[in-house]
């Protein structure tokens, strides 16, 4: 007997796959905070502290080429370009040496952040969701399978705004690499197929406003372009 819902279930959030009409189903979005030393320094935080994790809703994903409405309640939305890791497997207490076996592929993403709201929450020791987990806050380009590109541990990661380079780093600058991130996160929650992890951002984060075009790239992985649109009425 098929299930009967009292309301229509929400559509499955998905990411596209480069060169294919197949889709990757998104279960959860996990994000790593403070994983590049220069970004920690520019935000005025203690670089000796380890990275930590926060989440965004699965339906915050936005595809390559889309327009992202400028969100409400903020006057200071920032861009943070990141390497995205898409999982095909999961579990708890995953060993670092086993972690890459669980990776399906990689992509390029942006952790959009209502910085003023994030900072206000931090000052009164409240959760960050209001600053991080809003609608359309996780643009992500097409994924490329690890079976094709391998597991990138170095390579240039960039973001330009209206043609001006703002963020320019390298994956090898991560404090915690991808297998370490997967292993550490699996100590806190059970990971599963469909989870994606945004692995932190290099220095150069800055405000973005309606009309901006953000062009992102991770060497050997892919690109992502989104436009920041007007606020929704």
From TrEMBL:
<keyword id="KW-0479">Metal-binding</keyword>
<dbReference type="InterPro" id="IPR011234">
    <property type="entry name" value="Fumarylacetoacetase-like_C"/>
</dbReference>
<dbReference type="GO" id="GO:0016787">
    <property type="term" value="F:hydrolase activity"/>
</dbReference>
<protein>
    <submittedName>
        <fullName>Fumarylacetoacetate hydrolase family protein</fullName>
    </submittedName>
</protein>
<keyword id="KW-0378">Hydrolase</keyword>
<dbReference type="Pfam" id="PF01557">
    <property type="entry name" value="FAA_hydrolase"/>
</dbReference>
<dbReference type="InterPro" id="IPR036663">
    <property type="entry name" value="Fumarylacetoacetase_C_sf"/>
</dbReference>
<feature type="domain" description="Fumarylacetoacetase-like C-terminal">
    <location>
        <begin position="29"/>
        <end position="227"/>
    </location>
</feature>
């Amino acid at each position: 007997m098929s299930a009967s819902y009292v309301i229509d279930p929400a559509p499955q959030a998905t990411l596209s796959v480069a060169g294919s009409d197949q889709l990757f189903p998104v279960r959860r979005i996990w994000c790593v905070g403070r994983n590049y030393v220069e970004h920690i320094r520019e935000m005025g935080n203690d670089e000796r502290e380890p990275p930590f994790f926060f989440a965004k809703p699965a339906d915050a994903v936005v595809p390559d080429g889309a327009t992202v409405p400028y969100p409400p309640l903020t006057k200071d939305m920032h861009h943070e370009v990141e390497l995205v890791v898409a999982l095909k497997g999961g579990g708890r207490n995953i060993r670092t040496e086993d972690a890459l076996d669980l990776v399906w592929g990689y992509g390029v993403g942006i952790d959009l952040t209502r910085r003023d709201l994030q900072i206000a929450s931090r000052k009164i020791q409240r959760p960050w969701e209001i600053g991080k987990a809003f609608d359309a806050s996780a643009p992500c380009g097409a994924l490329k399978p690890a079976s094709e590109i391998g597991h990138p541990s170095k390579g240039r990661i960039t973001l330009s705004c209206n043609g001006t380079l703002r963020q320019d780093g390298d994956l090898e600058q991560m404090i915690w690499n991808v297998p370490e991130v997967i292993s550490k996160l699996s100590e806190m929650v059970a990971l599963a197929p469909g989870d994606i992890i945004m692995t932190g951002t290099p220095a150069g984060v800055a405000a973005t406003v309606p009309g901006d075009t953000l062009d992102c790239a991770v060497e050997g992985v892919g690109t992502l372009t989104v436009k920041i649109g007007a606020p929704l009425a």
